[in-house]
């Protein structure tokens, strides 16, 4: 019996009908046409390629950027009884070979892989042996150099079109401006530039910007008012741990989540949050992609994001079950200076790129015109220290050189120096009383790195050296002694980066070949920050209207963001109508007092009270003997 897309949806997902443009996208794919699907966060992107792949003979190749995202998708498919596997990092050549064999002969329906895998000859050769029915490029905005998450390796996705010229391609993303969408279509060599777009509007989310001098107190109040799951976004690991500790101290069930948490602990922390054993998770901005938790009622940004795209995607992790939720930015004026300092002051210009390229060649003693194609080990801190270069600026410049194929940059995280204190605090205090010379180093470690008793923490020995004005070699010797005396576990580093030069050394001429593009990309970053700052400072246009206008959509005022509410209900009858509808809905379930309604509804107290007065005058509600409102 021939099955329809609706049959597959019902069989595996338990839904009777599709949402938004899902059916239109699926029909287009089944007609063997290429399509770029622009759907909002929680818009059901994965269904758009999984359903047509299941309806056809063969296997679907899915390119995805994050291991967590891949693992989540594969596990979800396996739970539905669908054969799927992934080529993630840390897999031996033999295991990769066996997994690819399974795809060729084992009747698998989905193969998930990272874009970096497409550079491997073994993978490309074995793909040719597969009966591929569809190519899906998830998070496709990573292809575009104008996007907020540009990944050079993602441009390798075009090799799939070369290998399978007649297999349809579906690209999917929740954040793409017109320029980014155009870049995706061009890179993937679409045969027809078909773009299907749902509105990015999330009407169930109330967007707010709160200016305050006491951000921690405001955060505490927001968490207190929210009875459901919450995410708090910060930019640094240290701040994630500090805020988590603060909320725990104030009686909230909270944990933190960032790249420095060991893999075995990440799974436990995440599971506890997903199962609501932990109410609040404080995380750096990589958290959330691929994690489908429907009942998040509050997303707080404690610092300013670097782009509207990132903010909208992260805020969109609230209310995936379509229930009323809030996305709040808590800010003070100092945050504006910090975001400019963090993102704009570390953008490398052409002049700095030329300086860095010259220093790299000198550091590794490469002569003018020499073409080495050799891989060098680079201790990043030593290099920066040698030439008195700013760390973040230098790192960003290395990434630019990597993007433009001047060199390849490999980050050996497993080789970086880590420290974890293993001695108990009483033992440590006793040790400090007899090793006075080590006191400044130990105290600085404890003050600089949160969680250093609980986890192995990556440390920056140059930073420590600068903080306490002690030679780096002295610090390294001290760490070795602390390890020997069983005070810490210390893993030393020989290098934390590997660099392979890809072109002959030609100094300025090497950089000149792409200098114009560097300037353009710099301007994109500047524009992103400026757009974000305009959003937070614009208190005259509805938040929802501003956000959707950025993505080229027109929208009426939402009536419930901080901007709309500041206008006052007396000047906008639509707000009264909106709140009236919600009050009546609440009263259909139970009688409620004005205080209870104010707590339940995302509106200011005066708005709710004026609406109640209006409903009383219209004889739509009444007050009972317990001073609770009832329906007439």
Can you characterise this structure?
With 632 residues, the protein is an alpha/beta fold. The chain contains 27 helices and 21 strands. The protein has five domains: 5-197, Rossmann fold (3-Layer(aba) Sandwich), CATH 3.40.50.300; 205-338, 3-Layer(aba) Sandwich (Rossmann fold), CATH 3.40.50; 346-414 and 496-513, Arc Repressor Mutant, subunit A (Orthogonal Bundle), CATH 1.10.10.10; 417-491; 568-631, Arc Repressor Mutant, subunit A. Helix 5 runs parallel beside helix 6 (121-127), helix 14 (350-363) crosses helix 16 (391-403) and helix 25 packs across helix 27. The radius of gyration is 27 Å and the shape is globular. The model has no long low-confidence stretch (mean pLDDT 86).
Brief digest:
The chain has 632 residues and is an alpha/beta fold.
List keywords for this structure.
Rossmann fold, seven-stranded parallel beta sheet, 5 domains, 27 helices, six-stranded parallel beta sheet, 21 strands, globular, Arc Repressor Mutant, subunit A, alpha/beta, 632 residues
SSE blueprint:
Blueprint: H1 5-13, H2 22-30, E1 35-38, H3 45-55, E2 59-63, H4 67-79, E3 84-87, H5 93-105, E4 110-113, H6 121-127, E5 132-137, H7 158-163, E6 169-173, H8 178-187, E7 195-197, E8 205-211, H9 215-225, E9 229-234, H10 237-249, E10 254-257, H11 263-274, E11 280-284, E12 296-301, H12 308-315, E13 325-331, H13 333-344, H14 350-363, E14 375-378, H15 380-387, H16 391-403, E15 407-411, E16 418-421, H17 425-434, H18 439-448, E17 457-458, H19 461-468, H20 472-484, E18 488-491, E19 497-501, H21 508-512, H22 515-537, H23 543-550, H24 562-566, H25 573-589, H26 594-600, H27 605-617, E20 621-623, E21 629-631
Helix pairs in contact: 2-3, 5-6, 13-22, 14-16, 25-27
